[in-house]
Amino acid sequence: MSKPNRLPAAMLLLLTAGSAYGACTLVRVPADQEIQGQEVIYTFPNGRVSIPRNLPVGSVIARAPIRSITKTGQALQCQPGDRVRETVNAATDTRNDGINGYLRRGDGSMTDAGVAYRVLQSDGNPMQLTSVSAWPTNGGAWGSSAALVRRYAAEIVLVKTSDVVHSGTVFPAGLKRRINAVDFNNAAGGRLVAATMTTTNSVTIVPQTCEMTSPATVSLGNHRRTAFTGVGSTTPTTSFRISIDCTGVQTAVHMTMSDPSNVANRSSTLPLTSTSTASGIGVQILRGSTDTLVSFGPDSAVAGNPNQFKLFDATAATPTHIETFRARYVQTAEKVEPGTANSVVTMTMSYQ
Question: Are residues 67 and 147 in the same domain?
């Protein structure tokens, strides 16, 4: 992303007053005075945000408009010729480049998560998150105002900054930007918190979805009844593959296969559908080079779901994966009756 030109960091206004030279000092001011410190509160409408896989880098994924502005009752009182030193600071739990406050992953590492926050002006341009400036005054009250806040800090937004966004990242509620001002030559005169910008709610970046391609139907072929020699005997397997594209997603991909006709089925055998005319057999699914039998679990994406298994780790280097399965008939009763033999299975992905 190209970095915007440096923008004014201040949201401060000068009112002319007396003519005697002196130092700016921190004073209490009436509630109806416009120019004074401001506490600005922002709220995100939703606490969970899902980012589409192909969303371009630089896109805004969540917006927090101003919820309220409250006066602090304090201002700097300056004399003509005084100068004010202003310091702007960003949230301490992010890395910033002046414009973007980069979120950290939620795994305890110091790695950027692929999302940053910005403070935007009403025209959509970003403000500096950190800066140090010196401003001359003509005397009078120095501080901020609701009008300046709405112009120069209209909203806080979350922006996609990388092709890969780490799932489960949390943008915590709290202070995101602070403007402090003191007399340039006489810091002992008191520090004014000219403006604070705080979000009231956290936002969780929910796991992005991968794209799975699988056959709608797998034919297990025709078999003579004599192919079944007793309970547990099986037919030769038929292979099928599913492909998974997780471009733009960095996560561990898991899967659960479920029996939609019996949600409590935890075995490794699918029953035939009620419309099948054959009986005494079921269907088994195997995976991996060792032909491990797949056992069925609830239709749920929760981590640790019963009989859930891992497919692969999706990364920027390995965003795609092909998994090969095999299916076969298995004898489940002493007597096998010929006819149509169909089963149904559902596949649920889980991103962890």
Answer: yes
Distance CA 256, CA 300 (A): 7
Band (11; pLDDT cuts 50, 70, 90): very low
Angle formed at CA 131 by CA 127 and CA 135, multiple of 5 degrees = 100
Q: 288 or 264: whose pLDDT is higher?
A: 264
Strand 203-206 versus strand 74-90 pairing type: unpaired
Q: Give the three-class secondary structure for 239.
A: strand
pLDDT over threshold 60, residue 245 = yes
Quick one: DSSP state of residue 236? P
Q: What is the DSSP letter of 168?
A: T
Q: List beta partners, residue 60.
A: 159
Q: What is the largest CA-CA distance in the chain?
A: 111
More confident residue, 303 or 207: 303
- Distance, in Å, from the CA atom of 247 to the CA atom of 255, rounded to the nearest integer, reads 18
How many C-alpha atoms does 256 have within 13 Å on its Cβ side?
23
What one-letter code names the amino acid at 10? A
**Is 1 a domain residue?**
no
For residues 200 and 216, membership in a common domain is answered with no
Domain holding 229: CATH number?
A: 2.60.40.1090
* Domain co-membership, 137 together with 266: no
Percent of the chain having pLDDT more than 70? 90
| Residue closest to 202 by CA, chosen among 46, 57, 351, 326 | 46
